[in-house]
Amino acid sequence: MNELLLQTIVDKLNKVDEGIRQINSAAPQMPDYTEQLKNVSASLEQIRADVAGMPERLKFPTAAVYTLSQNLEINNDLLKRPPIQEIKHHHHVRAGVIVSACLFLLLVLGAVWLFNTRSILQAYRAGDIKYRYMQLQGGKQLHPFLSTIDSLYQAQPQAFRDSVLNWEEERQRIAVMLHEAREKEEEAGQLRNRAKRNR
Questions:
Q1: Model confidence at 31, in pLDDT bands (50, 70, 90)?
Q2: What pTM did the predictor assign?
Q3: From residue 193, how far is each of 20, 51, 196, 199 by CA, in Å?
Q4: Does residue 150 sit in the same domain as residue 163?
Q5: pLDDT tens-digit profile of 83-131?
Q6: Do 150 and 164 reside in the same domain of the chain?
Q7: Are residues 126 and 170 in the same domain?
């Protein structure tokens, strides 16, 4: 029985070998990747070495942080005590120009004052000449009137001046009223003419 069993096992193994040969002949030849696998293995070794050295490279830079903190303290101290900046003002207008401008303004003001004074003086001279002309040419009727006016003025100059000003204002008011009356009469005449045309 042992032989029969042994013969059966040998036959089965032969059939299995035959099947393997058929499969190998039917399947294409597998390429040889040994060189690429060696390269991948070398790359993995390099990556493993890099990863092993990472803790050293990723180590916290305490020396650099200490230097940075010292520099920050120095900068904070400088910012607390800023440097004093000296500001100098440069005036481009010289004192001579300012003095000349002031003197020119004084000259202009003086000229305006003299012009106004001259105009007032000319008005007084014209009034004086007119009064003297009336005294000389007035005749016998005007002499007593002018003498009375002179004595009234000399007695109370302010009251005389006020009465003359009031009299002038009254005459001006009457002239304005007469002018308005003439305008209204003209308007009434125009209205009458329109009414006559519309009849």
A1: low
A2: 0.34
A3: 146, 122, 5, 10
A4: no
A5: 787 888 777 778 888 889 999 999 999 999 999 999 999 888 888 887 7
A6: no
A7: no
How far apart are the C-alpha atoms of 105 and 99, rounded to whole Å?
10
Residue 54 token pair: 């990472």
- Compute CA 106 distance to the chain's CA centroid, rounded to the nearest angstrom: 37
Q: Where in the sequence is the domain holding 196, given as residue range(s)?
A: 157-199
Q: Give the pLDDT confidence of 149-165 residue by residue, as tens digits.
A: 888 888 888 888 898 88
27: in domain: no
In Å, how far are 32, 33, 48, 49, 175 from 45, measured between CA atoms? 22, 18, 5, 6, 126
Helix (H), strand (E) at residue 60: none
- Using the 3D structure, point to which of 120, 136, 155 is the last residue of a domain: 155
H-helix or E-strand spanning residue 139: helix 139-155
Pair 116, 138 in one domain: yes
Q: What is the dihedral of CA 128, 131, 135, 138, to 10 degrees?
A: 150
Instruction: Give the chain's domain count.
Output: 2
Establish if 87 belongs to a structural domain: no
